[in-house]
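Protocol step 6 of 9: fold each sequence in the batch and record its structure tokens directly after the sequence line. For illustration, a two-sequence batch is reproduced in full.

Sequence one:
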Amino acid sequence: MTIDIRRLRDRLPQEIADLESEARREGHRHVARLIDEWSAGDNRFEHHGETLLGAYVDDALAGIGGMTVETAMSGALRMRRFYICPAMGGRGIGRMLALALLDHARSFCIVVTVHAGNDGAARFWESLGFQPHGRDGHTHLLALQHHSDDPAASDLRRCVTHRSP
């Protein structure tokens, strides 16, 4: 089994329809929202720090996840539209995709938020170091580690402030 994480640009892969069907069967609408927002041009993961990644197993799309600007907190990004096909569960694909997104985020912010939709998702995010932090539409927060000798990291820490609604 070969796992390949690819940045998705310009268009969504055709296989996204299969992921959306799987997610819908599980009672999740976030992949459908991804498709709708992309089609309407509302969210194409194009702002500074944003990205959309696909996890491919042997050239088949097995999962998707994105990073967008967190509007409720300055200097933060938000993990969004994260979904792994259930048939691919337990193979480390979700962890690999999440770690790739977090690695990307380190170049742009020091805090990442996520909304865990259920207890299983909460356990997954907590296994990656996210801490419960239920406010402003997210359930968990992760303070990214930076090298202590990086002056930009300390400057960013001072810039991350909570925005009032």
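Sequence two, same batch, same settings:
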Amino acid sequence: MSYAGDVTPRDAWERLAADPKAVLVDCRTRAEWSFVGVPDVSSLGKQTIFIEWVDYPNGARNPSFVDELRAAGVADDDEVLFLCRSGQRSIGAAETATAAGIVAAYNILDGFEGGIDPAGHRGSVGWRAEDLPWRQS
């Protein structure tokens, strides 16, 4: 593993609550933020950082990802928790952040709404299924 590790959505929330230097980076696409909803960490006195890992609809990796992390104020010694839809793209984000010098980059397992379940739907696992705060953007 080339990043700090994987955490559950609940563990991510607890880390965000406990560590003033912990930040949440939602690396989904603008379309996902708009149509599915976004995590809301405002009750912790924090704001989610929104940086696309890939762009929609092309699916090309964002070449400015690390620059955008830095511009958002993410420092090498911050605990950075990456969230995508299902916990897959956020692995790449955490690996890239680690390669850029961020020593505590984590992937949030199951992401915002999880993978597709046996019935062909999303939402049975992940941030929303854990009843963690979120809102429509």
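Proceed to step 7 once all outputs are recorded. Observation for sequence two: Residues 113 and 123 are 4 Å apart (CA to CA).
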